[in-house]
Amino acid sequence: GSSGSEEEARPAAAEAAAAQRREERLRKFRELHMKRNEARRLNHQEVVEEDKRLKLPANWEAKKARLEWELKVEEKKKECAARGEDYERVKLLEISAEDAERWERKKKRKNPDLGFSDYAAAQLRQYQRLTRQIKPDLEQYEKLKEQYGEALYPTSDSLLHGTHVPSKEGVDRMVADLEKQIEKREKYSRRRPYNDDADIDYINERNAKFNKKAERFYGKYTAEIKQNLERGTAV
């Protein structure tokens, strides 16, 4: 009787062990399935982030770092003002003499005036000068960042038209800047006084401007030829 009960117990124990192994395999399979889904999700997220980074302007990281640095400076200024301290004095106390000297040398090297080379270089220099004058409203920038989040940084797929309405203060600031540029340009483009003793080597105003430009660039090469022609000794 005992041997019969043992024989009946063996298949039951084997079946229980098989069920346990099957459950263990299913559990491992579910874990692998969850890990695969998680890896797929992270991979997709990384692809999306990389696509965003590739669509951003080439100097975006530098601009973002610059804005973050300016925000820190503004916070530091507010802290100094609250304590009744001079920010410039506090800043100088935190800078070593070696760093100050290095920054001064860098400032002198930055954007040196090389004179007029061509109109493209002059236009670039004018653009850099105007952009350096722009003082961003960092408080407004923080409000927009909270309001729009990632949408504040457009990509090539972003729809920009009609999504932003400039403030009245921003429009007034732009108009004032344009009027200042126009006023400065008028001073440089005023008519120069006419010289009665100068040689007449032009047929109209446009030709006179062309001749002056040609003289400025090629005068040193043609001076001897002109002198020979005036003396009548040219071959």
From TrEMBL:
Keywords, comma-separated and alphabetical: mRNA processing, mRNA splicing, Nucleus, Spliceosome
Listed GO CC annotations: catalytic step 2 spliceosome; post-mRNA release spliceosomal complex; Prp19 complex
Location of the protein in the cell: Nucleus
Region described as Disordered: 1-22
GO biological process terms held by the UniProt record: mRNA splicing, via spliceosome
Domain of life: Eukaryota
Primary role: Involved in pre-mRNA splicing as component of the spliceosome.
Organism: Ciccaba nigrolineata
Protein name from the UniProt record: Pre-mRNA-splicing factor SYF2
UniProt similarity note: Belongs to the SYF2 family.
Subunit record text: May be part of a spliceosome complex.
Main location: nucleus
Entry keyword annotation includes ATP-binding: no
InterPro entries in alphabetical order: mRNA_splic_SYF2 (IPR013260)
